Amino acid sequence: MTPRDASEPNGSRWSDLDRPPLNVTALRRGLVREGGLWSEVEVVQRTGSTNSDLVARAAEGRAAEGAVLVAEEQTAGRGRLDRQWSAPPRSGLFFSVLLTPGEVPVARWGWLPLLTGVAVATGLSRAAGVDTALKWPNDLLVTVGGEERKAGGILAERAGDDGVVIGVGINVSLRADELPVPTAGSLGLAGAVSTDRDPLLRGVLRSLEEWYGKWRAAGGDAGACGLHEAYAAGCATLGRVVRAELPGDRAVVGEAVAVDGDGRLVLATGEGVQEPVGAGDIVHLRPA
């Protein structure tokens, strides 16, 4: 699907006055600066997937590091394991960024989704006043009515040999009757002091720029730049009994005891084995 510019008039899509469109001019003014990470900010009205669009642009040489692509509405947004991610227009933040950490060994790029999680949680805490937690490897959790709910997710995809596109989806003003599943949540339902998406997006991207700069300067060493410690401190998965559903229809149940130096989740199983999990679906079986 071809993206349409956010300024394109379409009265039916501007009917919800509680959900004004993003101000792309103000976003560019606040984020794109000489010497900074963000090189361009584009907002489109509607597209299938910002990740797919930005990966394609990078492959064609039409996007540089620091490109930010934001959609007011995604019709084919994807999470991990090709799960669909959909939400009403302008009810959330749906964006992708292109990073090219050439001086960091590729073996350490697996930290990028975790780094993004820390950055998003930090930025939202500051801008929305909502306590957030991270579910390994890529979910953002909030508390709604005393229950843990998923309010966001992160998807990283390689873009050619030297790039990574990181996609982020965050439910901002989603109402209870709009939730796609009972386990979903939003910043609004979690008591956010603000659901104004412009300052929320600026806060998240500034936090991402800060964490990415630290990690890159440390050559991708998550311990040296404080990322490992920050992720562990904010990770709701640690200390809980979980089931890891792994590729090949294999499952492992154990206590999540650590995130190792490669960003893998370490499970202590009932057989007394510590098993690192690098990819898989994690189900929290009981509270920490």
Automatic annotation (TrEMBL):
EC number(s) recorded for this UniProt protein = 6.3.4.15
Q: Where is the BPL/LPL catalytic domain?
A: 27-216
**One Pfam family this chain carries?**
BPL_LplA_LipB
Q: Does the keyword Transit peptide apply?
A: no
Mention one GO molecular function: ligase activity
Q: Does the keyword Chloroplast apply?
A: no
Alphabetically sorted, this entry's keywords are:
Biotin, Ligase
Q: What class of enzyme is it?
A: ligase
The record, for NCBIfam families, names: birA_ligase
**Name by which UniProt lists this protein:** biotin--[biotin carboxyl-carrier protein] ligase
Say which species the protein is native to: Streptomyces lomondensis
Q: What is the lineage of its organism?
A: Bacteria, Bacillati, Actinomycetota, Actinomycetes, Kitasatosporales
